């Protein structure tokens, strides 16, 4: 699996990462959502470089021009609810894309342990299509794996791009070892080395869903 870390090279991307981490900025939920959108837009731009293009004749008001145009429409998938602002960033750029939505949440047990539960999915057929599956946080990697397994019940895609803004080293290793789909690329914005025993990434950003939409009970 190819792993691409956009944060390794300095760009405005790193500035947006710093703002979603910063406790003095991130609690402005509108700004947090917009920063997630902008991060999604940058990921979209970079992923677009991996796609196929067709040289197409375009008619302008004054003549004709041959331009390279994306020749395939991706399917944009996200994990509810935290992934919605990031997903919107992708949709801003791939504005005619098909869309998939998967619900995943932690179901806690009496002893404090938990399991990841997926309960809902809405998706088109993904056969021979490019799929971009995004989730802001890649902690253990289990949510991403389960979401992808659900998507693969809808067909055999041409290529899968997995996208996470903040990823733990453990989660990256888990995905690399447990996703066996041959044509798969993992895109990350930043790699964090630690996790708490509750599987929250350190230093991380906290709960991306709560920061975007308010705390849940």
Residues in β-strands, percent: 35-45%
The quaternary organization reads as single chain
Structural class: alpha/beta
The helix fraction, in percent, is 25-40%
- Looking at the structure, what is the overall shape? globular
Rg estimate, integer Å = 18 Å
End-to-end Cα distance: 37 Å
- The unreliable regions are none
Q: Give, in spatial order, the strands making up the sheet with the most strands.
A: 1-9-8-7-4-5-6
Q: Total number of β-strand segments?
A: 11
Q: How are helices and strands ordered from N to C? A: EHHHEEEHEEEHEHEEEH
Sheet with the most strands?
Answer: 7 strands, mixed
The overall pLDDT, averaged over residues, is: 93
Number of helices: 7
Overview of this structure, please?
The protein has 217 residues and is of the alpha/beta class. The chain has seven helices and eleven strands. The protein has helices at residues 12-21, 23-26, 29-48, 84-93, 142-151, 169-178, 208-213; strands at 2-5, 53-60, 63-70, 75-80, 98-108, 114-122, 130-138, 159-168, 184-192, 194-195, 201-202. Helix 1 packs antiparallel against helix 3. The termini are far apart.
Any chance you could write out the topology, listing elements then pairs?
Elements: E1 2-5, H1 12-21, H2 23-26, H3 29-48, E2 53-60, E3 63-70, E4 75-80, H4 84-93, E5 98-108, E6 114-122, E7 130-138, H5 142-151, E8 159-168, H6 169-178, E9 184-192, E10 194-195, E11 201-202, H7 208-213
Helix pairs in contact: 1-3, 3-4
Keywords:
single chain; alpha/beta; 7-stranded mixed sheet; globular; two-stranded antiparallel sheet; 217 residues; 11 strands
């Amino acid at each position: 699996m190819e792993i691409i870390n956009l944060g390794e090279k300095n760009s405005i991307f790193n500035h947006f990462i710093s703002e979603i981490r910063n406790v003095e900025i991130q609690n402005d939920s509108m700004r947090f959502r917009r920063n997630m959108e902008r991060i999604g837009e940058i990921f979209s731009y970079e992923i677009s470089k991996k796609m196929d293009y067709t040289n197409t004749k375009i008619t302008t008001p004054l003549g004709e021009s041959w331009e390279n145009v994306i020749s395939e429409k991706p399917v944009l998938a996200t994990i509810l609810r935290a992934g919605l602002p990031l997903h919107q960033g992708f949709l801003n750029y791939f504005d005619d894309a098909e869309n998939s939505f998967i619900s995943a949440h932690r179901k806690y047990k009496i002893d404090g342990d938990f399991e990841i539960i997926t309960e809902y999915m809405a998706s088109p057929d993904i056969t021979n299509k490019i799929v971009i599956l995004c989730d802001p946080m890649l902690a253990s990697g289990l949510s991403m794996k389960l979401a992808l397994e659900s998507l693969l019940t809808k067909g055999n895609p041409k290529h899968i791009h997995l996208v996470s803004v903040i990823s733990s080293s453990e989660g990256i290793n888990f995905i690399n070892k447990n996703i066996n789909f041959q044509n798969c690329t993992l895109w990350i914005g930043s790699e964090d080395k630690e996790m708490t025993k509750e599987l929250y990434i350190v230093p991380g950003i906290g709960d991306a869903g709560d920061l975007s939409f308010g705390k849940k009970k």
